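FIELD: query
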Amino acid sequence: MIPNVLEYTLLQMIAREASSGYELANRLRIMQNTHHSQIYPSLSKLEKAGFLVVHKHSQNKKPDKKVYTITQSGLDSLLEWSETPLKIPVTRDEFTTKVQLDWLNNARTKGLIQERESYLKEQLGLIEETLDHFANLFDLKTKQDKLKNMSYQVYARRLDLIQTELKWCEQMYKIL
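FIELD: result
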């Protein structure tokens, strides 16, 4: 079995920290628009392929919590995949297409920017939680510690992008 990009993303996340599907879904909401309906079948597929092991933890008055850990086979697959060339990124963002229809539907433009701003603020909160989580998980106390940790830096980059887009939204409000 050759995993797809989502499955490699899950493997990478689990390789750094054993996680439940719920925890993975929350972190993935920051980087890509991935739903639970995509994540759980992918986790099952990775488990069946021998890339993950599931440990069930009892919860009071709730179903057992499944926590996934990576196997050596999963690590080997990740290492092999890390050596492959990058593919050109695909960006599909409905917002950028719709907002350009300002000439056709000017009355909708401000609402689109408000929707985007709301989404970005939600993402900002998730990213800040994740950065705090990584700082604790990897014991990143100093700025230098954080700069050296690529998992932290990937989310810090996303934070910068979100903040830049929020500034753009503020600028657009001024001209609307």
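FIELD: remark
The longest helix spans residues 106-137.
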